[in-house]
Task: inverse folding
């Protein structure tokens, strides 16, 4: 009958010493082509080709993965372009704000810093509620934040005072001394070591700044009508801001040790630094 139970298979023949021969597993190479494909599919692709749907899905996934790098590169390029555009707008608005407020640079600097405090602490509160900022981050030593605030207060106030007395095109040139100060201070404070090409680039920037100041003092450029005092003040303000950035980097490195490998959130450093900057600037100026 068709529905009857299958007959049991005969036992394997006996070999020497009473052992029985174990039948070899069914190999796909011993089967005809249609069964070979079916067996390979049942084994998950080990002995034959995958179905058309599976191969198409894998191809689409490969295309998606390969296209992800292009999207990331485009995003980085767009972010870099937006950063450059905002930096240029910041410089232009910086000078435009000093035109009507030429005699009140310290007041303008205080207003700007107060705006930083409102923005930074608002973002810090949101990140604390979201669990990104922890109580351990907020408990970091505040003496370093106070030093950051002092350096930034001196840098912003002196920079505003000098920029009010300098012609617009000279401000970006003289502000490049920030890179030179940052390299020098990172070697002193952080013990950094730089390659020869990096030092050469720093020397080129220094040469450009010196030539700009000297040629202006000789009456050959837009600095001809400005005394040497104000370019020196602007470069000193760049030194204060470079020192603040180096202390911030030190806070990140030391904070990672205190937090067992987890770096402090950037808004913790900027918020407390700006807060001390407002308080110190109010007391100093």
Result:
């Amino acid at each position: 009958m068709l529905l009857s139970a299958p007959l049991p298979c005969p036992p394997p023949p006996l070999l020497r010493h009473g052992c029985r021969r174990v039948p070899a597993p069914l190999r796909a190479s011993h089967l005809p082509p249609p069964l070979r494909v079916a067996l390979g599919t049942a084994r998950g692709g080990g002995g034959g080709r995958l179905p058309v749907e599976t191969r198409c899905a894998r191809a689409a996934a490969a295309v998606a993965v390969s296209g992800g790098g292009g999207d990331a590169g485009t995003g980085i390029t767009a972010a870099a372009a937006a950063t450059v555009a905002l930096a240029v707008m910041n410089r232009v608005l910086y000078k435009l704000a000093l035109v009507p407020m030429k005699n009140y640079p310290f007041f303008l600097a205080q207003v700007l810093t107060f705006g930083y405090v409102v923005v930074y602490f608002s973002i810090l509160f949101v990140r604390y509620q979201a669990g990104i900022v922890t109580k351990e981050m907020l408990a970091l030593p505040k003496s370093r934040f106070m030093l950051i605030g002092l350096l930034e207060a001196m840098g912003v106030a002196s920079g505003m005072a000098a920029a009010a007395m300098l012609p617009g095109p000279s401000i970006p040139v003289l502000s490049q001394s920030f890179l030179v100060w940052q390299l020098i201070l990172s070697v002193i404070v952080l013990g950094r070591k730089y390659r020869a090409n990096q030092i050469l680039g720093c020397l080129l920037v220094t040469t450009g700044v010196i030539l700009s100041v000297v040629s202006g003092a000789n009456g050959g450029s837009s600095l001809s009508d400005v005394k040497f005092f104000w370019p020196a003040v602007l470069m000193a303000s760049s030194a204060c801001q470079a020192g603040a950035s180096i202390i911030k980097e030190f806070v990140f490195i030391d904070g990672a040790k205190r937090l067992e490998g987890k770096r402090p959130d950037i808004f913790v450093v900027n918020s407390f630094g700006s807060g001390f900057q407002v308080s110190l600037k109010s007391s100093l100026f």
Summary: The longest helix spans residues 52-98. Residues 15 and 65 are 56 Å apart (CA to CA). Residues 104-284 form one domain.
